[in-house]
């Protein structure tokens, strides 16, 4: 982090500097600060207003005040103000409603000298909001200036309105006599007022606004120019300068409109009249946007040493433009509750990441707590120097501000969104629309405003308000679509916007399309109510003007995909593997219904996109639908069973030539482009052969069993994987754990893993530990997407590979899992290369349709034994790949661990993507839960499952070609009915009826409907197949005397499985509470 100065120094840095500098100057009040600076630096400039307009000298106060001037004139102001106020006031709180000016500052300081606490009222507040604040604080008097006097006319008669008097009389100030003493509160600011409420007062203590700052020694520091009004953050800028003896200039609000040209004139004026160079510039995003578009604006910013921006999100395109032009741009973040928190101050010549705020590395001051979607919430800790609001028992303040980490710079964070100001889609996914709105608005001059909508819907849309009535809707959409398309490609899937959801709303001349708060934020609720018809129309449009010509269905379907995705997809390739996510599926399905179905009331199955798998298959399906063929749900089992065998054969080729060291370490050269080996390629292969022989020699000398235990782990961010990692890092036998996962960089990888632990109430990774190494990877690549150095280290030191990663998506067909299967083969190759044991974490779903009782702990050779889900069938295929690898070995290389239904950990944390927690969560939308007589709670606590996997990993298999272990709870108690009785009697969730499975399914299907995207939606088909047989045999449980799955082999090697006990009532109730708090209803 670069050295701080008064313009960049956060309160955390100030506290650190004060600890190092015992002689640092401190003051107890703002008045004491000003009077002391007047004594020590009387002629140093303090405050200026750039009154560049050609007004008569009698119309404005002096444009520049020294510290002596500021001290003397504020005393003079106090004397004058005292004559306008009662001698024995009923309240020592008073309002100030004024433009940002010298008079504003003198009135504030003068009232402070008289013992009053001043409420700084933003002129944008409506009279009811001002009235509310005055009543809340028992304010009886409000001072107003000429410019904003009209804003006070709507106040009640209980509040006296007083014009700010003139302070231009330079007569000697009389003694003020007895005053109540200066308040500990420097001033009171207020929230902006939101779409859902009136503004709230926020007192600012003398210590918080001034005493917590560090006084940088020295003189003639650069002056600051600020466009921020005094009532909106201007005073913090003032006090940062004044505590270090520096000066600040302000734009003259009320005397000229704030335009790009006027800002340049004001800066020129300040520089011409300031004895100290004006080199710091403090602003808000819209000011920088104006300057970036103004002739000469960027050039002015280039002359500044530092250009600070805060208060809202600056559109990245504008910031990037400025930084690319050589502007030293830094983001500054603070709040009324906590003061100055972070900035992106850095080495500007080398570091261009202006959006990433650099946090002080001290967990006593601030922390970033993991949240969903790889985001973290900023939490200000009790040790922070200035904290006027807390919302946790330990005295911390959770800010609701969400950040994403830099991929490589430690402790650098980019603001993402507000947790409490996000749009929540129907599937529970959240995002902050404000940065997207700002980015769209900044991309074109054809818009004057933008509103993103979508709360409670399957996907979002945008209202576009043209800047001119001369622009057609088509032209508006054409102008913004390239930018939105780029945003889509860089954004999370649930934030993407389909072109069909762009709605152009004409605006009448002189009309404001969107009401905004005093900070310029959209009053979202009012906007959504005002444009409810346009929003509803965007979702309810079910008619299509497109007429599909005969033979044109293929093109129409491809057009639907391109319209939503903004790109073409291959018609014969799996759609999921081409990046067609679930949100896109919903939009595409709706388009297909509108455009490609001949029946007006036609409906397609919810999972039709993934079920068909490719565009070609989808076209065939639609052709059958349009021809009236009732056999639309053709049983795909036969083709899937054939595909299982084909995939198993495809990935079971472990010929040494296909995975020798030259393909694992060093350059991986494709032979598909040329049949002739170049000399360079031959050299690389020769080098690879030398490396392979060297590694073989090392392994002969050092047996893997004698090497330090190093484990490669995949799936560490998953439910089971996170618990495996936690136990591995606590295990003294383990020297190092390599976590392989998808991430943008090592820092992002570590954060993802640390967040996954935190979300399971497990200790996150320590910042500087080296036992757990998190590496970004791509397991579908032969070299696993690792660098040559990383791959060499892992392939020469690893003793165990635990493969726990797998896509858990019950909507996908088998062919969508091919990447998972190929990844398994690549990891087996790594294990063989390293001489390591390979543990494949499979699922009992791979054999759950077996007719054998009990299901044996042996390899299955019949694909029909896997359940019909693509997930289950892919696990069966991967088991065959493991077996094929073992056939090439003298002793088993790969072991298969079939895991049963996992249960919550000791803290009650379960998995939001698994079937049973999702089933239980349906009580919130159906009011019932099914009676399932055949079900027992043979669920295994996840920490015991993780322990069993590790015990198996340390087992030396002998005599078995492919060892298979069942990690599950062998007990058949408690029953499902026991659980329902426990839940119904508890107070930890909603009340529910216990009904038959058929009635529950009927209610669930109705509750889900066509528009509800409850996370259980994807499992509806599976539950129908499993539970739609009406009231099942109630004696089924009594007839079952033992587990369906054999566990004897596992019990021999795993103490965890030998000792597992039935689930207790207490643990079930704790988990029920977690389900209701964490899974969307």
Automatic annotation (TrEMBL):
NADP keyword on record: yes
Positions of the UniProt region annotated as Disordered: 662-682
Database matches in SMART domains: PKS_PP
InterPro entries xref list: ACP-like_sf, Adenylate-forming_Reductase, AMP-dep_synth/lig_dom, ANL_N_sf, FAR_NAD-bd, NAD(P)-bd_dom_sf, PKS_PP-bd, PP-bd_ACP
Pfam families the record matches: AMP-binding (PF00501), AMP-binding_C_3 (PF23562), NAD_binding_4 (PF07993), PP-binding (PF00550)
Keywords, comma-separated and alphabetical: NADP, Phosphopantetheine, Phosphoprotein
Domain of life, source organism: Eukaryota
Ranges of biased composition (kind: Low complexity): 662-676
Gene3D superfamilies the record matches: ACP-like, N-terminal domain of ligase-like, NAD(P)-binding Rossmann-like Domain
GO MF, one example: phosphopantetheine binding
Protein name: Uncharacterized protein
Protein source organism: Fusarium oxysporum Fo47
């Amino acid at each position: 982090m670069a050295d701080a100065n008064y313009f960049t120094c956060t309160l955390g840095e100030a506290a650190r500097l004060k600890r190092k500098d015992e002689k640092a100057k401190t003051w107890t009040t703002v008045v004491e600060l000003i009077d002391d600076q007047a004594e020590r630096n009387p002629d140093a400039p303090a405050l200026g207003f750039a009154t560049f307009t050609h007004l008569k000298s009698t119309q404005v106060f002096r444009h520049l005040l020294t510290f002596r001037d500021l001290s003397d004139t504020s005393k003079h102001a106090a004397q004058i103000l005292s004559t306008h106020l009662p001698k024995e006031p009923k309240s020592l709180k008073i309002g100030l409603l004024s433009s940002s000016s010298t008079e504003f500052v003198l009135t504030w300081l003068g009232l402070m000298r008289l013992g009053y606490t001043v409420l700084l009222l933003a002129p944008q507040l409506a009279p009811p909001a001002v009235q509310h604040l005055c009543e809340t604080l028992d304010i009886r008097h409000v001072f107003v200036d000429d410019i904003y006097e009209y804003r006070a006319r709507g106040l009640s008669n209980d509040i006296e309105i007083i014009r700010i008097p003139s302070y231009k009389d330079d007569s000697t100030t009389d003694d003020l006599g007895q005053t109540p003493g200066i308040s500990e509160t420097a001033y009171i600011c207020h929230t902006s007022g939101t779409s859902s409420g009136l503004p709230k007062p926020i007192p600012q203590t003398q210590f918080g606004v001034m005493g917590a700052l560090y006084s940088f020694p020295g003189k003639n520091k650069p002056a600051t120019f600020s466009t921020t009004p005094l009532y909106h953050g201007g005073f913090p800028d003032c006090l940062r300068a004044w505590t270090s003896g520096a000066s600040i200039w302000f734009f003259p609000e009320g005397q000229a409109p704030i335009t790009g040209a006027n800002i340049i004139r004001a800066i020129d004026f300040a520089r011409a009249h300031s004895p100290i160079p004006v080199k710091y510039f403090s602003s808000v995003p819209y000011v920088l946007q104006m300057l970036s578009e103004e002739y000469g604006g960027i050039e002015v910013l280039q002359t500044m040493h530092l250009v600070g921006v805060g208060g809202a999100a600056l559109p990245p395109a504008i910031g990037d433009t400025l930084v690319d032009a050589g502007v030293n741009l830094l983001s500054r973040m603070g709040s009324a509750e906590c003061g100055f928190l972070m900035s992106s101050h850095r080495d500007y010549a080398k570091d261009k990441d202006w959006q990433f705020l650099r946090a002080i590395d001290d967990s006593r001051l601030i922390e970033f707590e993991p949240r969903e979607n790889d985001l973290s919430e900023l939490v200000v800790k009790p040790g922070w120097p200035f904290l006027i609001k807390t919302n946790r028992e330990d005295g911390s303040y959770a800010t609701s501000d969400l950040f994403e980490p830099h991929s490589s710079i430690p402790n650098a964070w980019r603001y993402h969104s507000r947790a409490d100001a996000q749009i929540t889609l129907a599937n529970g996914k959240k995002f902050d629309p404000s940065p997207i709105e700002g980015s769209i608005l900044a991309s074109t001059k054809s818009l004057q405003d933008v509103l993103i909508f979508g709360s409670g819907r399957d996907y979002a849309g945008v209202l576009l308000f043209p800047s001119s009535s001369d622009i057609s809707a088509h032209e508006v959409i054409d102008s913004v679509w390239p930018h939105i398309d780029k945003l889509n490609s860089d954004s999370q899937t649930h934030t993407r916007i389909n072109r069909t959801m762009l709605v152009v709303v004409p605006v009448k001349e002189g009309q404001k399309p969107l009401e905004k708060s005093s900070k310029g934020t959209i009053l979202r609720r009012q906007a959504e109510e005002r444009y409810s018809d346009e929003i509803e129309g965007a979702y309810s449009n079910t008619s299509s003007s497109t007429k599909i010509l005969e033979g044109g269905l293929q093109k129409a379907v491809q057009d639907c995909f391109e319209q939503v995705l903004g790109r073409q997809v291959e018609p014969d390739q799996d759609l999921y593997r081409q990046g067609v996510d679930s949100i896109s599926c919903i939009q595409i399905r709706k388009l297909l219904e509108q455009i490609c179905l001949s029946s007006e009331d036609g409906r397609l199955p919810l999972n039709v996109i993934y079920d068909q798998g490719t565009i070609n298959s989808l076209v065939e399906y639609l052709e059958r639908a349009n021809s009236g063929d009732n056999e639309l749900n053709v049983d795909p089992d036969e083709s899937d069973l054939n595909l299982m065998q084909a995939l198993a054969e495809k990935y079971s080729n472990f010929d040494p030539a296909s995975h020798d060291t030259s393909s694992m370490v060093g350059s991986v050269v494709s032979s598909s482009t040329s049949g002739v080996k170049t000399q360079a390629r031959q050299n690389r292969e020769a080098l690879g052969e030398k490396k392979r022989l060297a590694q073989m020699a090392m392994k002969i000398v050092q047996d893997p069993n004698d090497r330090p235990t190093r484990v490669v782990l995949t799936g560490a961010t998953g439910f089971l994987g996170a618990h495996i990692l936690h136990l591995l890092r606590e295990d003294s036998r383990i020297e190092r754990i390599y976590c392989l996962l998808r991430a943008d960089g090592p820092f992002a990888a570590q954060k993802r893993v640390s967040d996954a632990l935190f979300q399971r109430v497990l200790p996150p990774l320590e910042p500087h530990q080296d036992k757990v190494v998190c590496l970004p990877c791509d397991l579908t690549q032969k070299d696993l997407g690792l660098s040559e150095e990383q791959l060499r280290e892992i392939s020469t030191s690893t003793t165990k590979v635990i493969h726990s990663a797998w896509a858990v998506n019950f909507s996908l067909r088998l062919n969508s899992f091919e990447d998972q299967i190929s990844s398994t083969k690549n990891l087996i190759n790594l294990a063989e290369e390293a001489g390591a044991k390979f543990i494949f974490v499979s699922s009992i779903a791979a054999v759950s349709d077996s007719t054998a009782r009990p299901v044996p702990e042996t390899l299955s050779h019949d694909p029909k034994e896997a359940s019909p889900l693509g997930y289950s069938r892919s696990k069966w295929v991967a088991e065959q790949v493991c077996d094929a690898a073992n056939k090439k070995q003298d002793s088993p290389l790969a072991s298969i661990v079939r895991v049963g239904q996992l249960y919550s950990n000791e803290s009650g944390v379960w998995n939001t993507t698994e079937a049973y927690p999702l089933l239980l969560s349906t009580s919130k939308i159906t009011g019932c839960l099914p009676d399932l007589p055949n079900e027992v709670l043979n669920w295994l606590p996840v920490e015991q499952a993780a322990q069993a996997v590790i015990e198996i990993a340390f087992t030396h298999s002998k005599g078995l070609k492919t060892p298979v272990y069942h990690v599950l709870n062998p007990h058949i108690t408690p029953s499902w009915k026991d659980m329902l009785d426990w839940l119904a009697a508890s107070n930890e969730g909603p009340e529910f009826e216990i009904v038959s499975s058929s009635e529950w399914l009927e209610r669930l299907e109705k509750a889900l409907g066509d528009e509800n995207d409850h996370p259980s939606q994807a499992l509806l088909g599976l539950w129908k197949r499993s539970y739609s047989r009406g009231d099942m045999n109630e004696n089924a449980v009594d007839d079952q005397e033992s587990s369906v799955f054999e566990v004897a082999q596992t019990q021999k090697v795993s103490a965890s499985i030998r000792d597992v006990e039935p689930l207790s009532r207490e643990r079930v109730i704790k988990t029920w509470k977690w389900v209701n708090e964490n899974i969307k209803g």
